[in-house]
Design a protein that fits this description.
Elements (H helix, E strand, L loop, with lengths): L5 H12 L4 E5 L10 E3 L6 E3 L6 E3 L2 H10 L2 E2 L6 E4 L2 E4 L4 H8 L5 H11 L10 H8 L1 H17 L8 H4 L17 E5 L3 H9 L4 E5 L14 E3 L3 H4 L9 E12 L7 E4 L8 E4 L11 E11 L8 E2 L3 H16 L3 E3 L1 H4 L6 H18 L7
Parallel strand pairs: 1-9, 6-12, 10-16
Antiparallel strand pairs: 2-3, 4-8, 5-8, 6-7, 11-14, 11-15, 12-13, 13-14
The protein binds uridine-5'-diphosphate.
The site of uridine-5'-diphosphate has 13 residues, from helix 6 and helix 7.
């Protein structure tokens, strides 16, 4: 198992339970990949080291699975955004619309009002920008999406796929829950403790702080690779583009922003959001707060890859890597980095469970690129 994140841990666990001997290797000194959590030394607050991770799913099997390994506390992600010198509620809901336009509209009034704002000449939105203009119109797009998205992705929303915006709903009621999945929560002791439990099996050994070399594959019946797809092939065809994040940590006596995540829609604020980690654990008490300002930039060699940029150039390169990956014997490419997709945690776990089930019954599954 290359990678001790959710994919590696879940596949490893399932195969260990099916009787296989599993070794997990990760280049980083910790398990849990980018959902790694740890207690901040100075404040004792549980910190999402690689940015905010909120567990949400409609998949009962996945929810039951994570609850086997962690105690989940109720948690609703209620994101706010600063824009044009004011604070608004996200995702765009009736409160946002009424505040933004200084109105007191009812749901049906807001719906027809936004239809009036929307660019209805766009029948089949292809880009992020078209999707936004079609559903919320130019004013809301510029206030909440344009600046944030340029900062987050480093390119114009005209060049991004509509699928990225489809992650966010527009609601004509006062529901400000960022996600609408049936099951939502936060593991009480953090994600790393959960992944530790998943990996805690007599047939699993974990090696941290060691890079995987392709020649090591020879000593194993099969490799599940959740590292970056291009790096597996030594980036021979070129590098796939990723965005990476930098975090600027600061402390605050008391409550800095009153919520876990505050987005910044303005372009001239250089960061995309501030996470105040203690709000992820409202059942704990901490006097001093620790916050992370989050900056997004292009990923350079040696940086940690976060978001795959599925742009035209990347898609062509990806197709070449996928051809290679498909003809590589004894290796299955899995997870966000291994298949170069923007995956939520629950989808990653679902795919890992399915991959392991197929492997246990009939051998390597076809990877989902
Ligand atoms: N987005 C935005 N403004 C916001 C929040 C999100 O424009 O205030 C856009 C942005 O392009 C982002 C995408 O919507 O990449 C998906 O947002 P999500 O909150 O799902 O991003 P994540 O938490 O996965 O980084």
């Amino acid at each position: 198992m290359v990678g001790a994140g959710l994919s590696g841990a879940v596949i490893g666990r399932q195969l260990a339970e099916a009787g296989h001997d599993v070794s997990v290797i990760d280049a980083r000194p910790h398990i849990a990949g980018n959902c790694h959590t740890e207690r901040d030394e100075a404040t004792g607050v549980m910190v999402h080291v690689y940015g905010p991770h909120i567990f949400h799913t409609d998949d009962t099997g996945v929810w039951d699975y994570v609850n086997r390994f962690a105690h989940f506390m109720p948690f609703r992600n209620r994101v706010k955004t600063t824009s044009q010198g004011k604070v608004f509620s996200l995702p765009i809901n009736l409160h946002t619309i009424n505040q933004f336009y200084g109105r007191t509209m009812r749901p049906c009034e807001a719906r027809s009002f936004l239809e009036g704002e929307a660019d209805t000449s766009i029948s089949d939105p292809q880009s992020f920008e078209e999707q936004a203009l079609r559903f919320v119109g130019r004013d809301l797009y510029e206030a909440f999406f344009e600046g944030y998205t340029v900062k987050q992705w480093g390119i114009s929303p005209k060049e991004l796929p509509a699928s990225i915006l489809k992650r966010l709903p527009v609601r004509f009621n006062y529901d400000d829950n960022y996600f609408f999945h049936r099951y939502q929560g936060m593991p009480k002791d953090g994600y790393t403790a959960m992944v530790e439990q998943i990996l805690d099996h007599p047939k699993i050994t974990v090696t941290l702080g060691e890079r995987f070399e392709r020649r090591e594959a020879a000593g194993h019946d099969h490799v599940f690779y959740s590292g970056p797809l291009d790096e597996y092939f030594g980036c021979e065809l070129g590098r796939l583009g990723y965005r990476t994040l930098d975090f600027e940590r600061f402390e605050y006596e008391g409550d800095y922003q009153g919520c876990a995540v505050m987005n910044y829609g303005e372009r001239d604020v250089p960061y995309t959001r501030i996470t105040e980690h203690k709000h992820f654990s409202p059942w704990e008490e901490h006097e001093t707060s620790v916050c992370y300002r989050e900056f997004s930039r292009a990923c350079e060699p040696g940086d940690i890859p976060y978001y795959p940029i599925r742009q035209i150039r990347e898609k062509a390169l990806l197709a070449d890597y996928v051809d290679r990956a498909r003809s590589e014997r004894g290796v299955t490419f899995v997870g966000r980095l291994g298949t170069y997709r923007y995956l939520d945690m629950d989808v990653t776990i679902r795919e890992a469970l399915d991959t392991a089930a197929v492997f246990a019954q009939q051998g390597p599954a076809t990877p989902a690129f």
